Amino acid sequence: MATAEKAGNYSDLKAVFFNGTLKKSPQTSNTDGLINISRLIMEKQGVSTRVIRTVDHDIASGVYPDMREYGWATDEWPELYPAVQEADIMVVAGPIWLGDNSSQTKKLIERLYAHSGELNGKGQWAFYPKVGGCLITGNEDGIKHCSMNVLYSLQHIGFSIPPQADAGWIGPVGPGPSYLDEGSGGPESDFTNRNTTFMTWNLLHLARILKDAGGYPAYGNLPGEWSAGTRFDFENPEYR
What we know:
With about 240 residues, the protein is of the alpha/beta class. The chain has one domain (about 15-230): 3-Layer(aba) Sandwich (Rossmann fold), CATH 3.40.50. About 30% of the residues lie in helices and about 15% in strands. The chain is built from six helices and six strands; from the N terminus they run βαβαββαβαβαα. Strands 1, 2, 3, 4, 5 and 6 form a six-stranded mixed beta sheet that branches. β5, α4 (about 145-155) and β6 (about 165-170) form a beta-alpha-beta unit. α1 (about 30-45) crosses α5 (about 190-210). The longest helix is centred in the C-terminal third of the chain and has 23 residues, at about 190-210. The N and C termini lie far apart (about 50 Å).
């Protein structure tokens, strides 16, 4: 068996965790308990982390960068979005309700989508080369369904997804204890702890690779060039 290589230097990376719990602070969030496992691993490597509980903020619903321009009296998203811009890693975390992601998680995805048409310094879509992951908590089934929704959404708008980029915890089928409840077994679950740890390290590894490479090469993925007529070796078979 190959010996694990010593970890590299990740101290220049930044990570932001969005907690989609429906509980306002200071109420206990089970999702926060799982976030802390990943966050503490990152902080041991010197990564700067931030956790944002979206329900604590007056974030308007919609798919535009600033919904105050579309009839909403208030919208805190423009003040929160710089945390995404500055981050190398973003983890979307949240609970399962009725077998699906919470309304707060869905609102976050919609607000991220609002920026999907913007460009980065290379002229690529704005979220190149950020890395994304997903953490899910609940006490009934639905982890894979919720993770599929989040990870598909993130890659669609430009985030890079490493292997095994999701983890979660659910109790037995049917109503039961939540992750942090006494006797739930959640914090002691080897399966959840292993998957959360693997996810965290794969996020760190991919973020390190992309940062060291200066992101993705700016060829074949520039919307401005495509609009100007560049076809990056594409050939329309009708004209062959």
